[in-house]
Amino acid sequence: RRGKLHTLGHPVDVYGHLLHWACPAPNTQTPADHLFRILCQLPEKQEELQAQGTPDSPYADTSNSLNQLNNKFTISAFLYQSKVLLSRTILCSLRNKKYLFAKMGHALFVSFITGMFMYNIPSKKPHQIETNVIGCYRTITMATFGSFSYGAISILFSDRKILVKEYGSNYYTFLPYFISKIVVDFAITCMHPFVGTPIIFYLSGIGSVAHLLGCLLLGAAGHSLGVLVASLVDTSEIALAIFPAMSYFINMLTGTDIDPESIIGVLAYLQYISPPRHAYNIMIKLHYRGVESLTPRIQGLVDGFVSIYASMAVLFVMYVVLITAAAYCLKRKVLKLTDG
């Protein structure tokens, strides 16, 4: 209480407070994240604790008070729960320093190698510049989609038992938990493309802030797709087993491996719901906007498909639809687990 913890044993009357606030007691010796979660819910003043037995006290008859609080949605309760859960999720994520260092190191290594040796575009001949520009944007598009979508697969499995306990006992509502997981994981996943992509753009002599915005929209759509897949299955192993087939087919529709008009029948229209295809369209049209005397290949990419703003709108709508579907599916799955 009041920020002071006992390093040996348990805090004073901790089990009484756990029962009082309908929070599961720790099985191990007071883990830091569990104590953080508990102490954020305790009354701040001793007078509030002593007033719990009085009839006029807001803490009177508190056996179901937390359930009543969480069953009734209020903005203040939502903001408070979001603050606590965001803090806890950030602290738990920052503890894994080796993982964060590995992602940062991998992003730096890959971006420097890619920018200096593979797509050193200013030093090439005209026909090589065209090929390398297309290849660079294609690589960034596919890597961004893969990084965000695969990165979202495992975030809902790491502490699912805690979610089931807390949500099943009405300790927290679902929406703050879901938002905290999505926001923190999206920020960590952003580390790779938003450290590596600007370096590649700088070393290659291409790209702009608008290109990074396109990467961000693509990353959001890919991340929400990964969360949706994770919400539909029971284990991360199953998700990682079925997702490559889906993502590979989606990445094929970026518009560079194939000519979509050559696809049989209605399959040609699948490119219009492919996130990498829209991001690739944004990057190519931004790069060659206002440029004259283009080759037929580039002219076809610039004139074809949809406009830049239409692609951005599609990516944004796709993100909203996918993340809403992911939240709905995950909530249904958690309800089944808590009922079972």
TrEMBL record:
<feature type="transmembrane region" description="Helical">
    <location>
        <begin position="306"/>
        <end position="330"/>
    </location>
</feature>
<keyword id="KW-0812">Transmembrane</keyword>
<feature type="transmembrane region" description="Helical">
    <location>
        <begin position="170"/>
        <end position="194"/>
    </location>
</feature>
<feature type="transmembrane region" description="Helical">
    <location>
        <begin position="200"/>
        <end position="220"/>
    </location>
</feature>
<dbReference type="InterPro" id="IPR050352">
    <property type="entry name" value="ABCG_transporters"/>
</dbReference>
<dbReference type="GO" id="GO:0016020">
    <property type="term" value="C:membrane"/>
</dbReference>
<dbReference type="Pfam" id="PF01061">
    <property type="entry name" value="ABC2_membrane"/>
</dbReference>
<feature type="transmembrane region" description="Helical">
    <location>
        <begin position="227"/>
        <end position="250"/>
    </location>
</feature>
<dbReference type="InterPro" id="IPR013525">
    <property type="entry name" value="ABC2_TM"/>
</dbReference>
<keyword id="KW-0472">Membrane</keyword>
<protein>
    <submittedName>
        <fullName>ABC transporter ATP binding protein</fullName>
    </submittedName>
</protein>
<keyword id="KW-0813">Transport</keyword>
<feature type="transmembrane region" description="Helical">
    <location>
        <begin position="100"/>
        <end position="119"/>
    </location>
</feature>
<keyword id="KW-1133">Transmembrane helix</keyword>
<feature type="domain" description="ABC-2 type transporter transmembrane">
    <location>
        <begin position="80"/>
        <end position="285"/>
    </location>
</feature>
<feature type="transmembrane region" description="Helical">
    <location>
        <begin position="139"/>
        <end position="158"/>
    </location>
</feature>
<dbReference type="GO" id="GO:0140359">
    <property type="term" value="F:ABC-type transporter activity"/>
</dbReference>
